[in-house]
Structures are given as structure tokens and as C-alpha cells.
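Hey, quick one: can you model this chain's 3D structure?
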Amino acid sequence: MDNGIIICIDDERVVLNGLQSQLGRDFGNNYAIEIAESGEEAVALVKEILEAGNDIPVVISDQLMPGMKGHELLKLIHKLTPKTYSILLTGQSDLEAVIEAVNQANLYRYMSKPWESQDLILTVKEAIKGFYQDRQLEHQNILLERHNKELEQLVEERTSELQKEKQKSDELLRNILPEKVAIELITHGVATPRHYDSVSVLFTDFQGFTKLASEITPQELVHTLNECYSAFDDIIGRHKLEKIKTIGDAYMCAGGLPTENTTNATDAVAAAREIQEWIAKWNMEREGKGMKKWDLRIGIHTGKLIAGVIGKKKFAYDVWGDAVNIASRMESGGEINKVNISNATYELVKDQFNCTFRGRIEVKGKGEIEMYFVEGSK
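Sure thing. Here's the predicted structure for all 378 residues.
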């Protein structure tokens, strides 16, 4: 067993037992599952685990508990172990608490009660993956902090050069974050999380990536991914979408934020079609050189979500909400070389694109969802 521990907090013992049993079946071979029935008990447990030198990759907390509320608890836990991913369970819509948890507790996801078993398992798996990927970036953070300290030491001697460096930093921030968010952060020092009523989230993922990656050198793998992602960046930029992040071979972007618009669904589908065309041409060139092709799945869903900036030194613009989970399922529930969209997106693009109704498709954690393949423009 690794030294990782997953903590579940809820004031109802029957819920805790259910969580412990459910998570134990899927993660028990590699992670211990600990429980607490109150915020105070959870804080003491976290301190004990950290003192023993163990990792806490994920904390799952109920929102409505006597005494300390879930989002307040997660803020305390975040201070003790900032890298831990937190998941908030809520039985009612509490947007203010969620935004506070996003802003001050590095909230990874929030889920409505009662949750779907498979949706919870998938969310925890993604959180664990993110926790250990963050650890791999630790070395880069050390180098960045060293660079910042060196800049601070040169302030008095090299004021003009420092100003140039600041201009470079601001420009880098504009490259990392959406322009509007970067300006707000540069001007005020903070960027306020926002709720959006209609955002189109687009996911791409390469079929059989693990096998493909095992057959080439690390240098070739990075070069190939960079080639694809650079092309994707150019394409989504032309269609007014914002890149959110990449996780391994998964690429995520969204339309309709940070500046809201009414064309984000059409923009996302148009970008997906262009990505699809680029991949097809790219694969033909690879096959002509005797290289294996990389097949791609694309999924899109339009819905409500929360977006904001997390981090103090290594900023990241991210999105949260059920719309993100459904968009991810559109990708995993699609087929290679196809653009798979939800009914919500279809209703917004049906006058611009020809689509084929696939029926109600069963997806993990969400039950049956109506899906469509985009066949082309009208």
C-alpha cells in the first residue's frame, strides 16, 4: 500500500460507512480510507496524518454539518496541506459557499447529493491523478521561486532591468490566462471567480495513448504532443475559445468565457471540426512516412459552470461544475475521428450543422444522455 490516505467527512455515520466501503473497493489496495464525523475531528486527523509523513491526495467533505460547514473545513485543511485536492458534497445549491471554497480552498469539484457512484469514483481517480502530477511539477516551482528571489535581490541595483522583467512577466501572464482575467489580476492582484450560464466545454483525447506512448521515445512523445497542441491552440484561437489546460493526452478548452457570448456552441463545434480535419491530414502525412496514426475523440457540452484563477505563484485558470463532467463524458462516450455533442449543444447548433442523432447513450455516472455526431456544416 502506498502512503496515501483519502479522508471522508460527514456527520451521518451511514453516509461515511457508504463512502468508506465504496472507495475501499476501488482504491483500498493503494490508499487507506479514513473517516471523520465533524470538522474538528477531521482537522485533528489531518494533522496526525501529516505528522506521520503520509500524503493526503483527496479530501471529501459534506457541506451541511453541525458547527463547522464543509467549505469552512476545506479552507482550514487547505492551509494545512495546500496540495490536497478537495471535493465538496452538497445537498442544495450553495453557490456562495462553492465560490468561497474555489477561491480559498483550491476546490477541485463539487457534487450534488445524492451522487452517482461511478461519477464519484471517476472524480476521485481524476483528483488523485492531478495530485501526483502536481508533485512532478515541484522541481519547476522551485526553479521559479529561485528566479523570483534573484529578481528581488536586483531591485535596487537594476531598477530599469527589473521593470523590463516585470513587463515580460505581465506578458507571460497574458499568455497563460485569458486577456481579461490577466488584466484584472495585474491591476488588482486578484481575479474574482464568476458563474456563467452558458459555456461550451470541448475535450479531446487520443485513442490508445498509453500503447502509443510506450512505442516511442520520450523526446518523440513530447515533440508529437507539442505539434498537436500547438495546432489546436491556433485553431481554437481563431474560433474565440479559451484553452483551459492539458492533462497528459487530454486537451480542454471552452467558449463563452471570460467574456460571455451567444455563439460559443457554434464556435466550439466549428473549432472541433477544424481540429478533426487537421488530425486527418496530419495522420495521412504520418502514414506516408511509415508512422502510426493517432486517432482522436472529441466531445462538447454546453451548460452552466464556475470559472476562476487558482494559485498564488503558479496561476491557473480553471472551470468547475457539472457541465465539465458531462463534456468529459461526451469525449469518452464518442468514437474516434468523430465530434460527439450533447443535446444541449445540439439545440444551439442544429441550424448551422448537420448532425446525426445517436439516441440515449449510457455514460458512467450520468445515466443515459442524448448524443449527436456532427457530420458537417449546412
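One thing worth noting: The mean pLDDT is 85.
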